[in-house]
Design brief:
Layout lengths: L10 E3 L5 E3 L8 E5 L17 E5 L12 H17 L4 H13 L5 E2 L3 E3 L2 E7 L7 E6 L6 H4 L1 E5 H5 L10 E3 L5 E6 L7 E7 L5 E8 L3 E3 L5 E7 L5 E8 L7 E5 L6 E6 L5 E7 L4 E7 L10 E4 L7 E6 L2 E6 L9 E6 L9 E2 L10 E7 L3 E8 L2 E9 L6 E6 L7 E5 L9 E8 L5 E6 L4 E7 L10 E9 L5 E9 L10 E5 L17 H4 L3 E6 L10 H4 L8 H16 L8 E6 L1 H12 L6 E5 L5 H6 L22 H7 L12 E7 L8 H13 L6 E6 L10 H18 L6
Parallel strand pairs: 36-37, 36-38, 38-39, 39-40, 40-41
Antiparallel strand pairs: 1-2, 3-4, 5-7, 6-7, 7-8, 8-9, 10-11, 11-12, 12-13, 14-15, 15-16, 16-17, 18-19, 19-20, 20-21, 22-23, 23-24, 24-25, 26-27, 27-28, 28-29, 30-31, 31-32, 32-33, 34-35, 35-37
Length: about 725
């Protein structure tokens, strides 16, 4: 990585000997003020005084409507440069794409899930980019092919669109209609479309919603959310199907720290709204059985700072998953009568009292059982509670055992309340996702479907759980997978280290068909379960991985990498690091602290302009995330956040090769953050390693909606990484 002999950090020599100059972003310094955010002064407990000011030389790259010709031209030149710099990889990219596609069962269907008189499922067809939503009657299953009904073919509507995201369909309770949400930009603004299930005719449309919606039980109304200018879901509305009446606003959340969502209990009786910030929540409910869709929302428990809770229902009781204002930091499950829902009436479930070593993450209520998902010792768990007649005690309790280690169990699609079977998902680093029906009374598993992965032999691969010791003595888990015939214990191998470590999100072991192109070339894949996530319990996040302990996240990742080197799993010159979104902030901060840690970095939609973004309340997600990172207008957080903000800590030192991916319409991490970071890195770095910025001009935070285009994007990224590791062989 030495800069000796290099012309200029922005000038690169390609395989045919030509020198290419990277786009140079013009500097137009604009002041950014910290101390008194206009209109949000009350949100700053201890404002900086005097106000501090930064100069942002690349602020002009921000264009909220994504239409500025100068900005679009700069992004176009960056994309051209990325293509030119990787032109020698075209054949290799195609090889990787073919291999990735070779691990995809192009014509396939999901496991049908029962829902009323039908089984609903999704199928894909070879050569078709999008899903086809179908159903068949639950009875007479011998005549499946004759009775299949295609409800929605997303391929048909996507023909004239560059981007088309339809997360799924939701049948009405009468099953005569269904509704789907569609986003055609990647901006996460969704139109709701109601369709006659028999004729396919569009019956109704609700434009520009937040994408969160529920039916009433009579199939006459839709409840949905709307977003404000900062993309925060802040309103709940009720829409009467086919009516010319104006939709009714039921609830508005005025506190910008809070996001508003809604759900319906599996019992079908209650619509539940949830106003939540990172640290506080408040729920209301509408009793569809007693009051109907036009009834009033009733407060369950008023918000109290630090109190997080969510409610579900069975019988005469609500069941509340809560931290009791941090008295039960790893969450407990409590019960109360639906007529007395306030916190004063919450009681422990007899036989399932709070256990600080058990972290509860989800609870699903069925007619006779409650399925509790959670974690213990860093691993996902599932407990089944058979409830007694009162619903306030457990008549029997057991944990569901799974065979592999490490592995991940998750909640599947469950639409039936009156059942003794729960559907779960199960996967590991070497086992493709399985759909399993678990009988909660008989304690038996039935594997309904294993995701087919062509050209994959599970016996060729192995996974392990390792532990690294962080600099403060804390043990950090690592999950690693490799191909057996490309692994010799004690011999350093090529390795990609992946991390996230924010929001308490657990980065559990997962099966990735795309990663097989790495494993088959001898690149081990490791996940660092660093603080800031929730793998080891809520304290892993709340006490050790946010606010003024956020640097633990970066230190843990560095210490994991150093452990893998010291243990002869790899060497820095054989290592790639990878992070997306907040994981992009992770790898960005790590590169500034330890640029010698790896040979190449892959940063997807990276959140790297921490100070500028978190100082501007008009940017989506900024205000709610003051409870994640801190508020840079506050003297308690300003210096600490500034000390690790990736863009603000780029310095004159050698950096590894970096591939940066962005989405023009991304509402979560705006495209200008990666663009500014690329410009800053090229300006200051002292080596000749490439900095590549590739912006998808028709997608958002989650990359392409077209499954084939998504694989081509992945092949582009992995070709760059493998080339830097010296593994580019067609």
């Amino acid at each position: 990585r030495s800069s000796t002999g290099a012309a200029h950090p922005g000038t690169m020599r390609v395989s045919d000997g030509r020198s290419l100059s990277a786009p140079v972003a013009e500097k137009k310094p604009k002041p950014v003020r910290f101390g008194k955010p206009e209109g949000h002064e009350k949100c700053v407990e201890r404002p900086l005084d005097p106000v501090r000011e930064h100069l942002d030389p690349y602020a002009w790259l921000r264009c909220d409507d994504r239409k500025d010709p100068q900005v679009l031209e700069h992004l176009r030149r960056e994309n051209e440069y990325a293509e030119q710099m990787t032109q020698h990889l075209q054949e290799f990219r195609q090889t990787l794409y073919r291999e990735m596609l070779g691990h995809v069962q192009e014509t396939d269907d999901t496991c049908p899930h029962p829902h009323g008189p039908y089984q609903y499922y999704v199928k894909t067809l070879e050569g078709k980019s999008y899903e086809i939503h179908c159903r068949k009657p639950t009875s007479n299953q011998a005549r499946v092919k004759a009775e299949e009904q295609v409800l929605l073919d997303v391929n048909a509507m996507a023909q004239e669109l560059e981007y088309c995201d339809v997360p799924g369909i939701d049948p009405s309770p009468c099953h005569e209609m269904y509704v789907y949400a569609i986003d055609t930009k990647g901006s996460e603004d969704y139109d709701l479309v109601v369709v006659n299930a028999s004729t396919g005719e569009e019956m109704d449309r609700v434009p520009r919603t937040g994408g969160c919606f529920e039916w009433d039980e009579q199939s006459a109304f839709l409840f949905y959310t709307k977003r404000d200018k900062a993309q925060r879901q802040f309103q709940i509305w009720r829409h009467k199907l086919g009516s010319q009446e104006e939709d009714a606003l039921l609830l508005q959340e005025n506190d910008e720290l809070f996001n508003l969502t809604l759900s319906k209990t599996l019992s079908g009786r209650f619509i539940v709204t949830n106003s939540s910030s990172t640290e506080t929540s408040e729920e209301r409910f509408l009793d569809l059985e007693k009051e109907g869709a036009e009834g009033n929302l009733r407060l369950l428990q008023e918000r109290k700072y630090g109190l997080l809770y969510s409610v579900t229902h069975r019988g005469d009781n609500f069941y509340i998953e809560t931290n009791l204002g941090k008295q039960a930091q790893n969450f407990t499950l409590l019960v109360c009568n639906i007529e007395e829902p306030a916190m004063d009436h919450w009681e422990a479930i007899k036989g399932f009292e709070y256990d600080p070593d058990r972290y509860i993450t989800d609870a699903v209520c069925f007619e006779d059982h409650i399925a509790v998902f959670g974690r213990q010792d860093g691993f996902t768990k599932l407990w089944i509670l058979k409830m007694d007649g009162s619903g306030r005690g457990v008549s029997s309790l057991h944990e569901v055992e799974f065979e592999e280690f490490p592995s991940t169990v998750s909640r599947g699609i469950n639409r039936e309340f009156k059942t003794d079977v729960i559907r779960v998902g199960y996967q590991s680093l070497v086992s493709p996702r399985s759909v399993i029906d678990y009988n909660m009374d008989k304690k038996t598993k039935e594997t309904k479907k294993v995701k087919p992965v062509p050209n994959y032999n599970k016996t060729l691969y192995a996974s392990e759980r390792l532990m690294a010791t962080a600099r403060d003595g804390v043990s950090i888990p690592i999950s690693i997978v490799y191909r057996k015939d490309k692994h010799v214990p004690g011999r350093p191998e090529h390795l990609m280290l992946y991390g996230y470590g924010s929001y308490g999100i657990c980065n559990d072991p997962f099966f990735s068909p795309s990663n097989l192109v790495l494993l088959d070339r001898g690149v081990h894949f490791a996940i660092a379960h660093i603080r800031g996530g929730g793998e080891m319990g809520r304290a892993w996040y709340e006490d050790q991985g946010k606010y003024l302990t956020k640097k633990n996240t970066f230190y843990d990742f560095i210490d994991v990498a150093d452990h893998l080197v010291a243990s002869n799993w790899t060497k820095p010159e054989r290592m790639a690091i990878h992070g997306r979104s907040a994981g992009g902030l992770l790898v960005g901060a790590v590169l500034n602290m330890r640029p010698d840690i790896c040979k190449v970095c892959l940063a997807g939609v990276p959140f790297v302009d921490l100070m500028c973004t978190m100082s501007d309340p008009s940017i989506p997600l900024t205000v709610p995330e003051w409870e994640e990172w801190g508020n840079p207008h506050d003297e308690r957080y300003y210096d600490y956040m500034l000390s690790y903000s990736p863009i603000d800590n780029v310095s004159a030192q050698p950096y590894p090769a970096v591939m940066i991916a962005a989405g023009l319409h991304d509402p979560r991490v705006a495209y200008w953050e990666p663009a500014k970071w690329a410009a800053k890195l090229r300006e200051l770095k002292t080596d000749s390693n490439p900095i590549i910025l590739k912006t998808e001009m028709s997608s958002g935070h989650f990359s392409a909606s077209d499954r084939y285009k998504y694989l081509r994007e992945k092949a582009f990224e992995y070709a760059f990484v493998l080339d830097q590791l010296g593994l580019c062989q067609v």
